[in-house]
Amino acid sequence: MTLKLADGKDYSFKPLTYSDWDDLSTALQFSGYNRIKDQPWASKAELKEALTIAMSMRPTQEQLEQYLSSSEGLTEILYLSLRKNHPQMKRKDVAGLFTMKDQDMLLTISEFIQKTSLPDPEEAESPNEPGVKAER
Q1: Which domain holds residue 110?
Q2: How many helices (H) and strands (E) does the chain have?
Q3: Which of 16, 2, 14, 1 shows the shortest CA–CA distance to 117?
Q4: Is residue 75 included in any domain, yes or no?
C-alpha cells in the first residue's frame, strides 16, 4: 500500500514479518522504560526499577492488542511497516506524519498491515496436508 501523506511524499507500507512482530512485542515490553529514560526528573533508581520490570515481563496477547489500539502502538506498527522501504525513518518521524484528523487513514493503514501480515483463519492450510484448508 502506497499513500501520499501530509508532507507530500509517497510512503509504502509493507506487511510485517515474524521479526517485526517480535520487535513490536519488545517495544511494548520496554514502553514504560522508554517513556521515562530521557526525562530529567527520572532518577537512576526509577530507571533501574523500570528496566527491571520490563526485563521480567513478556507481553500477553491481550496487552499486545491494547497496545495496538493506542497511539504509541499505532506509531510502532506504522514504523515497523515503513522501515523496510524507508530505512531513514525514525519512530519520531512517523509520529510527526499524522495528526488526530488522520484517524480514519491511520485505521485503514493499520488494518491493511494487520490483514496482510496475519494469516486469515478461513484461508489457513492444514499443516499436515498442504493445499487442504485446516479444520476449525
Answers
A1: 2-117
A2: 7, 2
A3: 16
A4: yes
Question: What does DSSP assign to residue 12?
Answer: E
What distance in Å separates the CA atoms of residue 80 and residue 1, rounded to the nearest whole number?
Answer: 14
Q: Are 28 and 66 in contact (CB under 8 A)?
A: no
Query: Which alpha helices (DSSP H) does the chain contain, by range?
Result: 18-29, 31-36, 44-56, 61-68, 71-82, 91-95, 103-117
* Residue 133 lies inside a defined structural domain of this protein: no
3-state secondary structure of 86: coil
Cα–Cα distance for residue pair 46/43, rounded to 1 Å:
5
Measured CA to CA, the distance from residue 33 to residue 16 in angstroms comes to 24
Beta bridge partners of 133: 125
Counted domains in the chain: 1
Residues 92/102, Cβ–Cβ less than 8 Å? no
Residuewise pLDDT in 10s, the chain (136 residues): 888 887 888 999 999 898 998 999 898 888 888 888 888 898 889 888 888 888 888 888 888 888 888 888 888 999 999 998 999 989 888 888 887 788 788 888 888 888 888 765 454 444 444 454 444 3
pTM, full prediction: 0.72
